[in-house]
Amino acid sequence: MKKILGAVFIAMVLGIFAGCASKPTGDARDTSAYQQNLKMNLPAWADVQFKSGWNKGGYYWKGPVDEAGFFASGKAKYSDVSTSTSAADLDGKAQIAFFVKQELNAIAKQESDAADSDSKTQTAYKDFQSSVAQVKISGIIRVDRFIAEDGTVYVLMFVPSDEIKRAMPSDSEFSQKVMDIYVNGLNEDKD
Hints:
Layout: H1 2-21, H2 32-39, E1 49-51, E2 69-76, H3 81-114, H4 119-133, E3 141-147, E4 153-160, H5 161-167, H6 173-186
Antiparallel strand pairs: 1-2, 2-4, 3-4
């Protein structure tokens, strides 16, 4: 039973990574997450993580934030709206930290692999991984909140690219290169 539950959990985690790591193409209204949220009377951004550049056409979110950054939603349901909102905010912040760190590590791995077995690059890569694991991203703000009929509070959180850059290590040429690639990707396909 434990093996089955473990396999299901791993499959779910891999599915989440696959869904967030690949760039959405076409119209966001054609995605299953958008359609599901529509059917459930939820905002398009509920349970979705996206870069500001991916918000092409404003389908994920039509709010006033017009700068490079990363959006993630959080949710919680407790006995009162205030507690639920606080917990949802924490969930959204954790989602942002998790996905930003995952993407940075993926970019760092690609850059490290591209440099083959250069020992200097491999050392810089390992140092970067250690630094990223300990990073605390501040400056994350709530830009929207939705309360569902069942009392679940959904929040949309945003962190500007400047805050991500400020939090991440930039003590080496390798770190700087990874950050530049990441920040340039935040605005990819932006109107």
